[in-house]
Design goal:
By secondary structure, the chain is of the alpha/beta class. The strands form seven sheets. A six-stranded parallel β-sheet has the order 3-2-1-12-13-7, with helices on both faces. It has a five-stranded antiparallel β-sheet with strand order 19-18-17-20-23.
């Protein structure tokens, strides 16, 4: 094995009764992003995922199709590998619970627990949830459970694990390891369940043959949940007979959604303690992803698949959206429009436009060569911001604060866009006397841009590698370590011509654009859902069109939302002598774009820092190919134009009226 320090992260072992959806993708992207981060920090990082196959639900579905359960599962395995390849997940190890290797681990592990007297035989009666693949607690049983579509009452002989024996040990272990469950409120939930008292756990089934047989009683198979947990041990390379043999155990981090921490933070550590194996060091519990307000569920059929999202915005944007949209541990709401807007505003506008502008100008004004950055020069303030953002972002990535890390990186993205607007390389290039300053502009600019590619490589691996090549740098962004952040931009690098990595989406015709992109990616025809045109009654002959200055009702006026915004950046729109592109903070987003024809009265520099008023809920439209998201309020007589501004300083996002 490698001499590097080891880091081991896992996803849950996924059910394979349907292809993965966006919730499954989120968990896997979290694990992959952390694994990539650790590799860039110098670790030998192992990511393990797999398929949980021994459920009654799968056995029933397979029987309905006349298939053996293993054959039924085998059909779904490629869906997971295809999805992970599409989302740029990897490298990873994938383990099936039906494999001989896993079977040997399970039997050896429970054989040891059985020998230690922590397993006994008794009858079990209770309601079994066929979709969740578990016996439900008495408190969870609904009224008239016999009418529930997924509950089945079972009475059978079973083997039990003495979980109650480990109640005090679990409480003591969690209290002495406060970092073992994150976020903290999930830890408190689990501690409360332990304090309420633990009952012994049923670990076998005798009413089905689909599963791993108990080594001391082959009439029973292991209950699906306790079987699946052992995949983490299988994947680590740990040998029960040779515990001192080098492996990746103990696991550094298990990642999962909030429906399964009970098994991972209470049952799993107790079983490991019984077997004499060190418990995992940390469990991360994240929230659910809802689709248009409803929890995604294969059984409900309201899922959105990774390939659909990738078809619209690409793998990097899907990864970015899921990690940027919600704080870790909280629920998120997934919508196609939300995904598309985040893609346009952050990646196509801010990030992609930064690289395209900088590369275009550098190729035109300095022949694609970047001079060495000199510390203490005219632009040391930007260099200081670069160093601060770099240090902060690396720490946040390692601490699982992915949303915060992306927000930190975007501080530098926005600062670089402002830097271009303020230094105006196109103006400097008009005079040879400005040559040294022009070179300094590009030296600090591209040093910062390379820093962004290194920081964002764990989240945007494909895009960062493509931009890395455009910057004329050797290797790939994803092959770098974070130590490269302290090194200068290579003098031998020759910048390439810019290529668009994040093409803008047309949000006004989003459904059609989504269909076209999906057809292009899959080669399959997507059925379009036609909508009948609304019936519009012709005006009566006696009716007249309203005059332009006709009165409107109060209810009409209240539909117009006017708010304050602060201008954080401004640039002239290329090809127009009237338009200025404003980047404004509206209290919710610090990077909203508004295009306005005020250049005859104001320069971009005049606008930066102003607090102005806008129409907030005006439908976005493209102006000169730029999506404008609002209208500024101004008044004038043709000769003089005055901006409508609040009296006194108001924060962004304050509503007027």
């Amino acid at each position: 094995m490698s001499s590097k320090p080891k880091f081991y992260v896992t996803t849950p072992i996924y059910y394979v009764n349907a292809p993965p959806h966006m919730g499954t993708a989120y968990t896997t992207i979290l694990a992959d992003t952390l694994a990539r981060t650790k590799r860039m920090l110098g670790y030998d990082a192992l990511l393990v995922t797999g398929s949980d196959e021994h459920s009654q639900n799968i056995a029933d579905k397979a029987a309905a199709e006349g298939l053996h359960p293993e054959e039924f599962c085998r059909r779904f395995i490629p869906h997971f590998h295809d999805a992970w390849k599409l989302l740029n997940i990897g490298p990873y190890q994938f383990y099936r619970t039906s494999s001989p290797e896993h079977r040997a681990t399970v039997q050896a592990f429970f054989g040891r627990i059985h020998e230690r007297g922590d397993i006994y035989k008794a009858e079990y009666s209770g309601w079994y949830h066929t979709t969740d693949n578990r016996f439900v607690d008495e408190a969870e049983v609904p009224e008239n459970p016999e009418n529930h579509p997924f509950l089945k009452f079972l009475t059978e002989e079973a083997y039990w694990f003495r979980l109650s024996r480990y109640q005090d040990w679990l409480l003591g272990w969690h209290e002495s390891h406060p970092e073992a469950i994150v976020p903290g409120f999930r830890r408190n939930e689990m501690l409360q369940r332990i304090r309420e008292g633990l009952r012994d756990l049923c670990i076998s089934r005798s009413s089905t043959s689909w599963g791993i047989p108990l080594p001391w009683d082959t009439e029973h198979v292991f209950y699906v949940w306790v079987d699946a947990l052992l995949t983490y041990l299988t994947g680590s390379g740990y040998q029960l007979e040779q515990p001192d043999k080098e492996s990746f155990w103990p696991c550094n981090l298990h990642i999962m959604a909030k429906d399964i921490p009970w098994f991972h933070t209470i049952v799993w550590p107790a079983m490991l303690q019984s077997a004499g194996v060190e418990p995992p060091r940390q469990v991360l519990v994240h929230g659910y992803w809802n689709f248009a307000g409803t929890k995604m569920s294969k059984s409900k059929g309201n899922v959105f698949h990774p390939q659909d999202a990738v078809a619209l915005v690409g793998a990097d944007a899907v990864r970015y959206f899921l990690l940027r949209e919600v704080p870790l541990g909280q629920d998120g709401n997934f919508t196609v429009r939300g995904l598309a807007e985040r893609y346009n505003y952050d990646l196509a506008n801010d990030f992609g436009n930064l690289f395209h502008r900088a590369l275009t100008m550098a190729g035109r004004f300095v022949a694609g060569k970047v001079a060495a950055f000199e510390a203490g020069g005219a632009f040391q303030e930007l260099e200081d911001l670069r160093a601060d953002v770099a240090g902060r972002t690396v720490v946040q990535l390692e601490k699982l604060e992915f949303r915060e890390a992306l927000e930190s990186s975007w501080e530098l993205v926005r600062a670089l866009n402002r830097f271009i607007d303020e230094t105006k390389p196109w103006e400097l290039a008009k005079s040879a006397d400005n040559g040294p300053r022009l070179q300094s502009v590009f030296s600090v600019l591209f040093r910062c841009m390379r820093t962004l590619l290194v920081l964002l490589a764990p989240v945007l691996p494909g895009a960062c590698d493509r931009y890395w090549t455009q910057l004329g740098l050797e290797g790939k962004a994803t092959e770098q370590g974070f130590d490269v952040l302290a090194t200068p931009f290579p003098a031998e690098a020759t910048l390439a011509k810019p290529e668009i990595v994040f093409p803008k989406l047309d949000l006004t015709n989003l459904e059609e654009e989504f269909i076209v992109r999906k057809e292009t990616m899959t080669g399959e025809k997507v059925e379009r859902v036609g909508e009948a045109a609304p019936v519009v009654e012709a005006p009566k002959a006696t009716e007249k069109a309203p005059a332009p200055d006709a009165e409107i009702g109060y209810e009409d006026f209240t539909k117009v939302k006017l708010i304050t915004v602060k201008v954080v950046g401004a640039t002239a729109v290329d090809g127009s002598d009237k338009l200025i592109r404003l980047t404004v903070d509206d209290g919710k987003r610090p990077d909203r774009t508004i295009v306005s024809g005020i250049r005859a009265h104001f320069t971009p520099e005049d606008m930066v820092g102003k607090t102005i008023c806008i129409v907030d809920n005006l439908k976005p439209r493209k102006i000169f190919g730029i999506l404008s998201e609002g209208m500024i309020l101004a008044a004038g007589d043709g000769q003089v134009l005055r901006l409508i501004t609040p009296e006194g300083e108001l924060a962004p996002g304050v509503r007027l009226g």
